[in-house]
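The passage that follows is intended for readers who have already worked through the single-chain material. We present the inputs for a multi-component assembly, then the predicted structure in tokenized form, and finally a short commentary. You are encouraged to pause after the input and sketch how you expect the pieces to fit together before reading on.
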Amino acid sequence: MIDLRSDTVTVPTQAMREVMFNAEVGDDVYGEDPTVNKLQNYVANLFGKEDALYVPSGTMSNQLSIKILTNPGDEVITEADAHIYYYETAGPSILSQVQIRPIASDNSMPDLDKIESAIRPDIYYFPNSKLICIENTHNRHGGMVVEYDYLVNLRKLADKYNLKLHLDGARIWNAHIKTGVPLSDYGKLFDTISVCLSKGLGAPVGSLIVSTKENISKALKWRKIFGGGMRQAGIIAAAGLYALENNLELMKNDHKNAQYFAQNVNLIDKISCNPEKVHTNIVVFELDKSLSPEKFVSDCKENGLHLHWIGDNRIRVVFHLQISDQDTENALEIIKKSIN
Ligand SMILES: Cc1ncc(COP(=O)(O)O)c(C=O)c1O
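Having made your guess, compare it with the prediction:
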């Protein structure tokens, strides 16, 4: 089965498993796991930040960031298709008692004017605007890269109104590999950054928040409250370190395969796809309205290709570490065979 549903489906390779097997571990709730500590320092350094905290998931690192940057009753601005708003089961309203103000965009970068006009004046009957969250690369916008200049201007806007800025950088690695913007340049712009090791990097589990020492010590307390304190977590942190040291550069190949796939899937009858919108490892294509997306996805599955239907007539495919050039060719053949 060729599984293109997500870059979260990768499984640890033999080399990664060996590193995990040999990992030095301790009790991380006491701060005594040397491998977790090494990973946290490593990632904090990559982003030029003071500190980092290892957590079980990207959802937890986003939610913890919101928790430490807001107070109950605050308003948080996100893009309308952001993971935080779309897929985190109203977590901000449950865990942080904040309200989300979604702003639509067609390219993952809401107009700065629209963001500015969504920032509330300081009047008692309004919520307090406190935080802006941005996602780079953007999952539901097909892995689009948020431009660095846009982020610089967003930071200026946030500073003008004294707002905090959080980056959902689950796939910031892909943005960095695509654009060459150093990770530390992203670090300069954000109060908190959430990064995932279990997507394109191919580790089995784990995310981190990077920020100041003060913010990370707040997040540490809230991680415990949220039930995210892990004990001998070095066994999985080792996989994250291995992934960062060995798999980051390999993302170039995922981007190449995604671009090749987009150009060729667009040539298939009853499918349209704009390769210009494919920046990194995610491709979204559209089926002709005459087709049933459910049937198409299930026919592809029967023929050995797992795809993800994301609503309307849109299908998402994601390239990752365990998809070869040959798998990419085979996927296109299966789609041709399944389309009728
Ligand atoms: C952009 C983005 N942020 C956050 C997450 C959440 O990560 P996790 O599944 O580890 O909770 C995902 C998961 O796909 C994602 O795509």
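Commentary: The chain has a mean pLDDT of 97. The domain at 14-246 is CATH 3.40.640.10 (Aspartate Aminotransferase; domain 2). How closely did your sketch match?
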